[in-house]
Each structure stands twice: as structure tokens, then as C-alpha cells.
Amino acid sequence: MEKSVVTNRKARRDYEIIYTIEAGLSLLGSEVKSLRQGKGNLSDSFARIENGEVRLFNFHINPYKFSTDKTSDPIRVRKLLLHKNQILRLFNDVQKKGFTLVPLKVYFKENRLAKLELALAQGKRFFDKREDLKKKVIDREIQQELKKRR
Question: Domain locations in the chain?
């Protein structure tokens, strides 16, 4: 059972998701407590592979209200915990033109460990977004017609 805490709504709209991978997050104790309260923002965050490590940029976690450590930066660069073969696969896939690493959501697995769902994604063009919107409208109309017939 997982409890989703923070989601990146723009990611599925702006990117075509190729595949997803689960990664652990290297966090401070006060950051974990703040995340449990839902005080995070993934909207403009992205991941990059540097020196054989995957790092998460622009992930904003509000400071925990009751923390004694006031020195932690809310948008500091955080390390993602992955196996070497996963990092190598991501590195090889990101080298292809137009691919990027986008975080989709942060959740707590079994109410203990903070995990991040990371996606290999390719940016959508404007007309791709319009096609998705048309498809959603058509699917919604079909569902409404089916409800009327029952």
C-alpha cells in the first residue's frame, strides 16, 4: 500500500511517458516529516545524471514547522537511490535525442520509505496535446452515452 504525497500534474500533459522506475530519495529527517504533511512541490523539477549518480533538481520541500535545523535549503539538490544497472539504463536512454528524466510523484511505500516515481519521457508538441484533449473528450462522450443507455 502506498500513500501518494506529491504529484507532478504537468508531467503527463507535457511529456509522453516511455517508462517509469521507482527510486529512493535521500532526505533529511525534517524533510520526511514535511513530506508526510504534503508540503512538497514537484512542478518544475527534473532529474539529471551526474558523475554516475542521479540527482533531483528543483524539488521544493517546505521547511518543517517544528524543526530545530533551520539551515536546510528547501530546493537543494537531492540524490536518488538507484541500482547501478538502472542508472546505466537511464544514462543510455537519456543520450537519445529528446529524452529527459521527469519525476511523476513522491509517495511513502508501506508508510515507511519515501519513494519517487521517475519517468523517462519525451516532450510533446502542441498538436500532440490537442490530440490527447480530443481523445479525452471523445472518451467522455462515449461514457456518457453508455450511462444513458443503461
Answer: 2-124
Contact 25, 106 (CB under 8 A): yes
Long-range contact list for 50-53, CB < 8 A, 24+ apart? Answer: 52/84, 52/87, 53/79, 53/80, 53/87
8 contacts 43 by C-beta, under 8 angstroms: yes
Q: Which CATH number, 3.30.450.20, 2.40.280.10, 3.40.50.2300, 3.90.950.10, labels domain 2-124?
A: 2.40.280.10
Per-residue pLDDT at 89: 92
Q: What is the mean pLDDT of the chain?
A: 87
pLDDT of residue 120: 93
Alpha-carbon gap, residue 129 to 13, rounded angstroms: 7
Cα–Cα distance for residue pair 145/63, rounded to 1 Å? 48
Closest CA to 105 of 49, 21, 28: 21
Q: Which residues pair with 100 in a beta bridge?
A: 121
Q: What is the DSSP letter of 29?
A: H
